[in-house]
Amino acid sequence: MRKVQKLPDAAIEKKISVCRKFQETDFQLLESERAMFDWACKQTYIALGNMMTTAAMLGIDSCPIEGFERDRIEEIMAADLGIDTDGFGVSCMVTFGFRIREGREKTRQTMEEIVRWYR
C-alpha cells in the first residue's frame, strides 16, 4: 500500500484495521482455513461474472462449471502449471468458445412468479 498506492501511514493503518475487523469479527474468516477458502471462492464469482459478461458482449459463448473433480484439477495445476496448491485452490471453472448449434429455447418463470417487491 505504501509503494503502490502511495498511502500515508495513517491510511494504511485504517485499511488494515477495517480488513482485520472484517476477517476476525464480521465474518470470522480466520477461525478455520475452510472459512477463508469458502469466502475466497465466493469472491471468484465476481471475476467469473465479469469474464462471462465481457465474452458475451464480444459474441463468445461461455459456460461456468462447478461439477468437476477438484482434487484431480489441483493435481494438474501443481504438476503441469507449477501452482502451489497448498496456497491456491480451484473454486470454479469456465469454458469459452463458440457453440456448434443453437441452444434450446429458455424456459423461465415470469418475474411476477419469482420476485416480491418490498417498499
Could you explain how this protein is built, in words?
The mean pLDDT is 94. This protein has 119 residues and is mainly alpha-helical. It contains four helices and two strands; from the N terminus they run H-H-E-H-E-H. The termini are far apart. 50% of the residues lie in helices and 8% in strands.
Short description:
With 119 residues, the chain is mainly α.
- Which residues sit in consecutive blocks of at least 5 with pLDDT less than 50? none
Mean pLDDT: 94
The secondary-structure element order is: HHEHEH
Radius of gyration: 20 Å
In the residues, how many domains can be counted? 2
Helix content: 40-55%
Strand residue content: 5-15%
How would you characterize the largest beta sheet? 2 strands, antiparallel
The total of helices stands at: 4
Distance between the termini: 41 Å
Strand order of the largest sheet: 1-2
